[in-house]
Amino acid sequence: MILKRWLYYLVKLRNKIFFPFFILYIILAAFVIYWLEPHTFESFITSVYWVLTTLATVGFGDYAPVTNPGKVYTIILYITGIALVSVFIGKIIDSVYFIDKLKVGGKMKYTGKNHIILIGWSSKSRLAIDEILKSDKKIDIVIIDVLEKAPLINERLHYVHGDATNEEILLNANLPKAMGVIIFADQITQDNYATKDPLLVDGKTLLIATAITTVEEKFNKEIHVTAEVINQCHIPLFKHVKVDEFIPTQEMISHAAVRSLFSPGVTSMYSELMSTQYGEAMFEIPKQAEWLTYRDAFVDLLNKGATLVADRGDLHINQKLDDKIPENAQLFVICDKDTLSQIKVK
Predict the structure, then answer these.
(1) Full-prediction pTM beyond 0.85?
(2) Which positions, given as ranges, span the membrane (predicted)?
(3) Domain 2-104 carries which CATH code?
(4) Contact (Cβ atoms closer than 8 angstroms) between residue 91 and residue 119
(5) Top-confidence range, 17-26, 257-266, 267-276, 317-326
(6) Cβ distance 131 to 278 under 8 Å?
């Protein structure tokens, strides 16, 4: 009855009490056998090794008590310690299961940095994840949504459950240390309420952008924010929040559809430019010191297999080749990844 009550008490102990107790038990057990038989166990480390192999029921036999007190102590160690190890292993398994449950359920804080935050789960965010994983082999992705569990399982993918308009949820995704945020239009609102009230979809995006701006100002951080806007006429409403770029979905689809009629195959070109899966794509490159004018950059890049197409949003590079390149230029080229790596290495 005493042993049963003792074991029951051990099971009920909280992890924060039990784990230090287990370590202390190992140290004391090793000290006692070392004190009883110092000639058999040459050092304290040796006695710790013997206690662990004994409690784990491995029993290599390289060390064993030779005196009667040592043998009696070993019997006591068997009776008490093996049960203790069983409880210890059980608690380890429970802890791993609990942590995994928290991670899948989006209850754990993300502590990394230079990651990308995707807000809102949909087929579009799934495609964005595939694109990010292919574009960069190291960057992590954090999804914020209200799903009960993580929509995808990947070692570089993390899930935070909650409302993205809540500052605490944004901090759980470690927004202040993020490289950028993409806000996707809420799919449920879009499917169920967009036809009844078109303001609802972009209105929710605006609330999320406002919450992000609040966190940026609070932590004095600059984070690149891209937002999907369903109706282009709503873009001016975002002028009071910090959104760097917009994706006017309906406008882009309509434009691509019309251009495909007048220029068959143009949609394939759009797809190649927007994705890295086709070999060549659009990339940002740093300005080289020897490039004084756009012509210098254009000719040098062309010789390397790349085509200079824009400086920030300016697509009229070919009309001002002799203009000087500003120091804050943001140059974009079309090339493959091998060419891009050669340009950046230089």
Answers:
(1) no
(2) 17-36, 48-66, 72-99
(3) 1.10.287.70
(4) no
(5) 317-326
(6) no
